[in-house]
Amino acid sequence: MNIINFLDDFTTSSILEGKTSRRDIFGTLGTLGKKAAMAAVPLGLAAMPKKTYAQSMNTDPVGALQLALTLEYLEDEFYDLALQSGVLPSGRPETVYMQISKHEQAHVDFLIAGLEGAGVTPVSKPTFDFTVGGTFDPFNDNGVGQETAYAQLLALAQAFEDTGVRAYKGQAGNLLGSPFLTAALQIHSVEARHASEIRRLRGLKGWITGNERGAGMPDATQPVYNGEENVMQGGLDVTTLGSGAAFSMDASTEAYDEALSGDDAVAIASLFIVEE
Fold this sequence. Notes:
Blueprint: H1 3-8, H2 22-27, H3 34-39, H4 50-58, H5 61-85, H6 92-117, H7 146-175, H8 180-201, E1 232-233, E2 236-237, H9 249-254, H10 262-270
Antiparallel strand pairs: 1-2
């Protein structure tokens, strides 16, 4: 299934038309009291006033969260398979991957619960191919050797995490006026910590310099970093705000992460999704 078509069903303003009403949401929760029902809806959509609900539909928070869920599915399965592969060295690398894996599963569960609580069917988990048709062998299934496979595990993890950070930022505008914004920003901050930790496992800085993907990163990951060389923030060229190394071109680009559009995030995710 093409990921763009896969998401299209969830990114139109009609997604919630005729769907579960606030009253219906409470009704489906059986004998739970209203207070308990509210607590059972993580993103608070059941409590959203009709006016706010309508405003939020104009910015399509549902589409933004369906995209986020697809990216979280990808990361969750990737880290799970990495831990099962026997490729990860014991010690800090394995510990880091185990912790990130727990976070990604929590993100998946949270997004699913929030969408279901709003009366929306969460997008189904696609079938992933982390070899990209045999280009990579991150789990050493085809015998490239543990060292090579581990390098690919790190490179792909970096690409996924950097994509997640930029994609969440790119969808923030679609979440304004909805209860989703705070939760999305919380997940965004955790994804940024993941990205930094993976980069340090690779012996790199914890942030992106310019649009450089870093040594050893496959050419196919370059779209993750395109646009990061931007130095214009709020209409100002940040390289002109001071002098010395602290305001160099590298430091100026490192100080800000750029947003990734939904289309670009979908294109990157599509590389790892099997057409059905």
